[in-house]
Design goal:
This protein is globular. The longest helix has 11 residues. It has 3 helices and 14 strands. With 251 residues, the chain is mainly β. InterPro entries: CHP02001. Keywords: Signal.
């Protein structure tokens, strides 16, 4: 690399100087016009809660993902998290997803797609654990408040014990103007195999706050709850109410 720099001609240096003097706005416009972008995140959480249920046994989990986005709104990506080691799920969850998102009309966006939940480190003799799930979301914006209404459906498959699973959710988020602080609230309802209740139905909820500092670095704190088993009551690290703290970086 040093050799090629040292061998630059005077004409090349002049061209390079002219390019360097090009306004930054031209570069920004080129980046915005790119039909493909890649976004990602990495996060450290004190407890991995999925729809209220603890999947890391109340312990710290490391999570991260990458998404390839296109201008028409189509996207594909992957996301992973460490788990509490178990024969059925192993030590790692790996999600692969794809779909489309975009604005339907002013103030209303939509998101539809499919996710494949995989558990590559599970015990081979534990039976099937991977799950396919289809989803659809509507995202209206009401002033400073962003809302998301979601429907998630897993059809009958071997990993669900011969049944299906339906999940409905509602989320709200609002940021405090002129500050990096935002608040969020969530409520969800599960009907099907993926609950720990005796009747296969469960509610989960959470409220939280987050703050973005130092660019893409964010700090979060939330209170999470879910209905536990009617027979055994709440299970520590799984269905007990808990406070989850997070430290993440998005790019």
């Amino acid at each position: 690399m040093l050799t090629s720099v040292r061998s630059l001609t005077a004409a090349t240096l002049l061209v390079g100087t002219a390019l360097a003097a090009t306004p930054a706005l031209a570069q920004d416009a080129e980046e915005k016009a790119s039909p493909i972008t890649v976004t990602g995140s990495t996060t450290l959480v004190t407890d991995y809660r999925f729809r209220g249920v603890g999947l890391s046994g109340g312990d710290i989990a490391i999570q991260g993902g990458l998404t390839l986005n296109t201008t028409p709104g189509f996207y594909v990506g992957t996301w992973a998290s460490s788990l509490e080691d178990s024969p059925v799920y192993g030590e790692v969850e790996l999600d692969i997803f794809g779909g489309w998102t975009g604005e339907v009309t002013d103030g209303l966006a939509a998101d539809v797609g499919v996710t494949y939940y995989a558990y590559p480190s599970k015990d081979a003799g534990a039976g099937p654990s991977d799950v396919w799930e289809f989803y659809g979301k509507l995202k209206p914006t009401l002033g400073p408040v962003g809302l998301t209404f979601g429907l998630y459906y897993s059809p009958d498959q071997d990993s669900l014990g011969g049944g299906d699973n339906l999940y409905l959710s509602a989320d709200a988020g609002v940021g405090i103007p002129q500050t990096p602080i935002s608040f969020s609230a969530h409520v969800g309802y599960t009907d099907g195999f993926l609950t720990l209740t005796d009747n296969g139905k469960a509610w989960d909820w959470s409220v939280g706050a987050s703050a973005t500092v130092l660019g893409g670095l964010s700090l979060g704190l939330s209170y999470v709850g879910v209905e536990g088993s009617k027979i055994n009551g709440s299970i520590d690290g799984v269905t007990d109410d808990t406070v989850v703290a997070s430290l993440g970086y998005a790019f």
